[in-house]
Write a structure and sequence with these properties.
With about 210 residues, the chain is mostly helical. It contains six helices and two strands; from the N terminus they run H-H-H-E-H-H-H-E.
Amino acid sequence: MPNTPSTGATAATPSAGAAGKATSSPAAPAYGQTGKVSTPAKQGESFGDKVNAAKAAVLEKATAVKDAAAEKTRPTDTTEPVARPRGQVRKARLRLSRLDPWSVMKTAFLLSIAFGIVTWVAVFIVWSAIGAAGVFDNINNTVTEVLGTPAAEPFDIENYVNTGKVMGFTTLLACADVLIITALATLGSFLYNIAATLLGGLEVTLASED
């Protein structure tokens, strides 16, 4: 009777296929490791390329954050307009208690000179316009017809009133105005100071709106 192999020996010896499967399976990761297999670095990638990639990522993130903040702060159509506070009006009451006679005299003197010059120029322009319009010739003809003056001695109004006499009189009047206006202004300042001492002077209210 032939010898048959025992079942115990057969179970103890592993098969060749099982041994191959056992050797091909990867080893389990040790405790504390994530099990992620590290990939080798790309060939030809330098440190500068990594820095540029990091900068680009940071810029993209900053742009996204900025856009999100702009969307939050953008006013909506339903926002009611904010009422501006009304400006306050500040008032100040001032009192003109005294006038300096010297400053009043200087100011009045300059203003009176300007007034005299304006008067002289105005009279000259008006007199020249009257002469250019032929008013004097019409007056001469009218007087000659009314009085019947002989042709040998025609009437001429410019023998009595001419440009030189009119402008000379205007100059004297302007000089007199300078003296009179200056004196009256100075005297008025003295009188105002006396009245201000007794009554307190003029009060002026000034207002300023913020």
